Amino acid sequence: MDETKFIEEKKFQQLVQTMDPGSKLLRTWRVSGGVSAQVTAIEFEQSDGKKKKMIVRQHGETDLKRNPRIAADEFKLLQILKSKRLLVPAPYHFDSSGAIFPNPFIVIEFIESKQKDIPRNVNTAIHELATSLSNIHKIKGSNPELSFLPKQEEIYAEKLEKRPAIIDESLNEGRIREMLESVWPFPKVNKTVLLHGDYWPGNILWKDGQFIAILDWEDAALGDPLADFANSRLEILWAYGMAAMNDFTNQYKSMCTAIEFKYLPYWDLFAALRPASRISEWGLDERTEKMMRERHQWFVSRAFEKIK
């Protein structure tokens, strides 16, 4: 074991003993899929002799610059959502002292899930995705418990105000920004609700074809449900294709009859801004990136057609 690995293992040993004095670290391993945070799985023997697995999420400098309290906020939100019986990992521990790791971190439930557990029937997956998102959006943004979360409209307003030095014309960023700048802010037609902020198939866990958990709540905010919905539509288009996106759209609409969808094309354009100048940094293979760019182009064109 090299020195860096040895030091890291000692830190995780310190962590498990902090949570449960007398426990013993058995192993650690990095979990794939962590982009905005370093995600590590740990297994340890508890003081009662039982083995336990957990996940340690350490947020990076980019997230901390955006929100210095991101770890504390995510931990608090998971506590609230767990109490409301949403399918989220149980939060176990939060530390911002710097005594173990330099950056704030949270420890959450390890949930067993494998690629083979994803439903083979796309229609089943789409139904579960729409149902779960609609359940998230039933949580009212007026709930005082959630007042610590950022306001989505403020995040989007800042995004429009801070034009990048180089516009990504390969994804129509200039045209999208011009349209959004001409109509922002949108009229308030929907009630403010809880938003996941990054609801896509990669943040969903399945077990034997059953939907079991929603991960990665660090981008949660309060705002119009269409902000979440539009982003999910693009993500599902990328993951499953046009027919699946349309099915997801129809199912979500049937579950959320109180929502006004008039401004959905504009929210779609906000969703389409997210990969601008970033998609080439996602480590995609050439074929996948080409597919995603083509589907993004179709998504943007359709939004503009709806606006006319």
TrEMBL record:
Keywords: Kinase, Transferase
Keyword set includes Kinase: yes
Alphabetized Pfam families for the sequence: APH
Gene3D superfamilies found in the cross-reference section: 3.90.1200.10, Phosphorylase Kinase, domain 1
Protein known as: Aminoglycoside phosphotransferase (APT) family kinase protein
Native source organism of the sequence: Bacillus capparidis
Keyword NAD: no
GO molecular function: kinase activity
SUPFAM superfamilies (UniProt xref): Protein kinase-like (PK-like)
Aminoglycoside phosphotransferase domain span: 32-231
InterPro entries referenced in this protein's UniProt entry, alphabetically: AGP_Transferase (IPR051678), Aminoglycoside_PTrfase (IPR002575), Kinase-like_dom_sf (IPR011009)
